[in-house]
Amino acid sequence: MLKNKRNRFAQLAFAFGCAISSQVLMAKAVINVNEFGVQSNNGSDSTYGVFEAIKAAKAQGATKLIFDKGRYDFYGDRATEKLVYISNNDPGIKRIVFPLEGIKDLEIDGQGAEFIFHGGINPFVIDQSQQLTFRNFSIDFERSFHSEATVLAVGKGYVDLHIPAQFPYKITDAGLLKFQAKADDQPNKITIEKLERRKASVNEVNYQYKRVLEFDVNKREPAYQKKDISTGNGLPAKKLAGERNVRVFHPKINATVGNVLVFQFKHRSFPGFVISDSADVTLDNVTIHHAGGMGVLAQRSHNVTVQNSKVTPSAGRMVSATADATHFVNCTGKVQLINNLFENQKDDATNIHGIYVAVDKILDDKTIEVRLQHPQQYGFDFIDAGDTLELVHAPSMSTYNTAKVASSQRISNEITRVVFEAPFDTRLQAGDSIAEVRDYAQVLIKGNIIRRNRARGMLLNSRGKTIVEDNYFHAPGSAILFEGDANFWYEQGGISHAIIRNNVFENNFYTEWGRGVIAVAAGIDEKYQESSRYNHNILIENNLFKVFDHAPVLNLFSVSGLTFKNNTIEKTNAYPERAKFNSLFVVNHSNNVSIEANNKVIGFNQSQKQLLTPTNKL
């Protein structure tokens, strides 16, 4: 189990101080990785040299680790191995190139370096560390975990594809299209040493896909009104005339000639940065071209900033990260996303939330067992002695009491036994949920560009004050979604104070992931929808909404307190109109909602008064 969270960061600081004080006189402030045999631009494996450089920086109390500008290659057979549980990604034994554990006050400056990773490895894993800064480098993978193909022709139940050489594939004896690390007939012009290295780092990766999605080749975004098509264990396929041309079959498949089909990587095993139980971590001018999972995942960490950075595809690819660009779970202090570009990732630009766990058994009046519900939460530790937990009636998502933890014991990756200091509320029953009451992160999202990705823009579910300002949004689903649930992802939300101001929302929600440009939702059972209110106190002001039809600019459910004022809604012709939408504002099971008359509506046939009148059910 983790150390008690109330004291964790203070204990980290004390331990770091003790360890470093005895060495400060010997400390070398700046270490260049080339001192450890790390070489650029020649394809050699830099993994072990970087490990030695990190070890030296920790031992000497160095404050900066630098790379000369150039390309650095990393393979898995000399990487550190560790069992890592990563929320909303896949846990397991990870091969880690930059293992940063128990480190304080270190800056890693790439000085324009390009980090290229090969095979199934994790670039950065930060654990129990403090005051870390990463800047001035990019990360990419030589072979991406997803695959792409260009549409050549379309028929009933099939499409013909050209698959570029950077996405090796084969058609199996069973007649299924499978992607792989390298082509079976690829000439082997490498040395035996490099071959063994390649086997060690690549053979562990299964490039299995689980769905396909069409991207518009000209707009470089998910195609209008196109959704994922599930592919099961693979698409039936046959070889066609012409090099690397194939026909794939599916009863629902259809596409536009010239567009790109993206084959979604089935797993989330290789996120770019994993930040666990750490404090004061900053990414500044870091570019993530690709990751086999999320670009940045921070969990149980305090004060995390991503600024002046990019999640964007490298040349020749449509997709960047195969899941969210950034993701924050049970974080505290400040979460800041400032002046970034998030584009073409296969999921949201960010998701900021907590974790619910379900009450599995009640053993006595002080003791319960709780169960993590989603497989990508297994192994997530967040209950320690001294913590206060909220007790939540799962069907209504209502918190009815709290209880203080005396002790906890992990029984398995799914089950934790919790003993409270005093008898808990008798209303608690199996099937209810609990979550940590903590210093909920204050969120600042400012000056970012969010565009061209699959799914939504941002899922914002921290109960700390949340400010979203001066951003540009263009997402195929909801640009901003507030929600929470205790029935699938078990993500704790319940916004308490959010301000959305001075943003541009341009032609979002064109493939309908979500319920509107800004949507507020909650996983509340129908029986309790009249009385339960999950999200509170939202101000939306001085924004520009460019929309192409009457789909909801604002769709609310279970909200108490929302003001929409001084915004401009402007009609465009960016996409075809959808006749099924007839209201810019939908308000369900909410109260204290004000859509003010000072909002401006431009380019519609109806009167402003008609357009600003919501469809509602209070």
Structure description:
The structure is a single chain. With 618 residues, the protein is mostly beta strands. The strands form five sheets. The protein has a 22-stranded parallel sheet that branches. Strands 4, 5, 7, 19, 21, 24, 27, 36, 39, 40, 43, 46, 49 and 52 form a 14-stranded mixed sheet that branches. Strands 9, 10, 13, 14, 15, 16, 17 and 18 form an eight-stranded antiparallel sheet that branches. The radius of gyration is 25 Å and the shape is globular. The protein starts with a helix and ends with a strand. The model is unreliable at 18-26 and 198-203 (pLDDT under 50).
Provide a concise account of the structure shown:
The chain has 618 residues and is mainly beta.
Name the features.
22-stranded parallel beta sheet; 14-stranded mixed beta sheet; globular
What is the element layout, followed by pairings?
Layout: H1 5-21, E1 30-32, H2 47-60, E2 64-66, E3 71-74, E4 80-84, E5 92-101, E6 104-117, E7 122-127, E8 130-141, E9 147-155, E10 158-162, E11 169-171, E12 177-179, H3 192-202, E13 209-216, E14 221-222, E15 229-230, E16 237-239, E17 245-249, E18 260-265, E19 273-276, E20 279-288, E21 296-299, E22 302-307, E23 310-311, E24 326-329, E25 332-338, E26 341-343, E27 350-355, E28 357-362, E29 367-371, E30 388-393, E31 398-410, E32 415-420, E33 433-437, E34 442-446, E35 449-451, E36 458-460, E37 466-469, E38 472-474, E39 480-482, E40 491-492, E41 498-501, E42 504-506, E43 518-520, E44 535-541, E45 544-547, E46 554-557, E47 559-565, E48 568-571, E49 585-588, E50 591-595, E51 600-602, H4 608-611, E52 615-617
Parallel strand pairs: 1-2, 2-6, 3-6, 5-7, 6-8, 7-19, 8-20, 19-21, 20-22, 20-23, 21-24, 22-25, 23-26, 24-27, 25-34, 26-35, 27-36, 34-37, 35-38, 36-39, 37-41, 38-42, 39-43, 41-44, 42-45, 43-46, 44-47, 45-48, 46-49, 47-50, 48-51, 49-52
Antiparallel strand pairs: 4-5, 9-10, 9-18, 10-17, 11-12, 13-14, 13-15, 13-18, 16-17, 27-40, 28-29, 28-33, 29-32, 30-31, 30-33, 31-32
